[in-house]
From TrEMBL:
It comes from the Bacteria. This is Outer membrane efflux protein. It comes from Sphingobacterium sp. (strain 21). It is found in: Cell outer membrane. The keyword Transport applies. GO terms for cellular component: cell outer membrane; efflux pump complex. One of its GO terms (molecular function) is porin activity. SUPFAM superfamilies: Outer membrane efflux proteins (OEP). Belongs to the outer membrane factor (OMF) (TC 1.B.17) family. Keywords: Cell outer membrane, Membrane, Transmembrane, Transmembrane beta strand, Transport. InterPro entries: OMP_efflux (IPR003423), TolC-like (IPR051906). Signal peptide: none annotated.
Amino acid sequence: MKKLLYIFLPIYILPFIAFAQEILNLEDAVAIALKQNYDIRLVSNDVAIAKNNANLANAGMLPSVTGDASASAATQNTTQTLLSGETRSLKGARNTSMAYGANLDWTVFDGFQMFARYDQLKELQKLGDANLKQAILSTVFNVVSEYFNLVQQKQQLTALRTALDLSKYRLEMAENRYQIGRASKLEVLASKVDLNTDTTNLMRQNVLFSNTKIRLNEILARDVNTLFDVTDSISIEDNLKYDNLLNLALQHNPALQAALINRRIAQLELKEVKGQRYPTIDINSAYTRTRTTAELGFATKNQGNGFSYGVSASMNIFNGFLQKRNERNAALAIENASINLEKTNQALLSQLSSAYQTYLVNLELVDREQGNQMVAKQNMDITLEKYRLGSITPLEFREAQRNYVDASVRFSNAQYEAKMAEIGLKQIAGSLTLN
């Protein structure tokens, strides 16, 4: 009785240990990652910087106003000879000067370069949004991948625990038979070896399960030792259509959107370079107050205030053919951006087509492996009953046991691979849902 309690007690304890940990569902895991993941936070700050930069002042459209103030003083020994021949001298004569005012400078025309720069800044903001979306998709993919990896491993743990329970039962049966003389010592030793093997496999799987939890905690940017449990099933969306995915990808794929934005930025760069052929017109204005004092001279005090204004224009007439060179380089940059757009589009079509074929194959494999597992389970049940009756050998029992574990592992692997193919397609399409 004590041996039976020792064998079967873990079967009843393990579920309570699992339920003692918090169940982390997929939606909560993704929500935590979107809030705390380091990559998303870094890219979000870059987006905020790009948004702050996209303003009229940064493009050079607004005037600049500065306030200036200056003051100086001097002490001198001075001798003055007037026209009348009179001479006046003063030791330690003190002179002071003070000026303050406001200045306005405004470039009112620069060949439309300021408008091109402003459009560039807005496109850079859009590029930041595309990069943020890419970071979010990548993070969500990693979270979903690791989460269902844990589910897969949990399913395999269940299969390995079942195998361990069967090995314990087999050892118990072998020892009982040995005691009544119906089995040899060799059968008992073989049962112990198989039990040790199953125990080792379960321990290794537990370590892998724990390490995967640590990786998921790292992605969620929380304490890597946070304890949690996951659900025990994988739901697969089996009705994805290639044409729908293609339309979504052409509209929402962040890599393709970034390539389009980069081409637009290159076009605006050429527009800005061509603007350097036109004159630049600046206006300026200032209001100044001045005050000077002198202890020796015709005027001992002088004060003034007033406005000043003016217009200036400049135009590049010749700069050593640099203008033509800059325009050619800008045109080549547009060509490169267009080539990169075509390359990205081609890679997108290739990835989507390949991923969709993998998705279809994995769906078929899930059905096949599910059938194999059911057959292996039935075979295991029949073999267990025959072994209990003593009508089959321990070797046949062990073979059925291994077949059941292998079939369970293949089925969980097939589910995981199909789920990865599903979310991979959604990531390419730029709309990664959690269905």
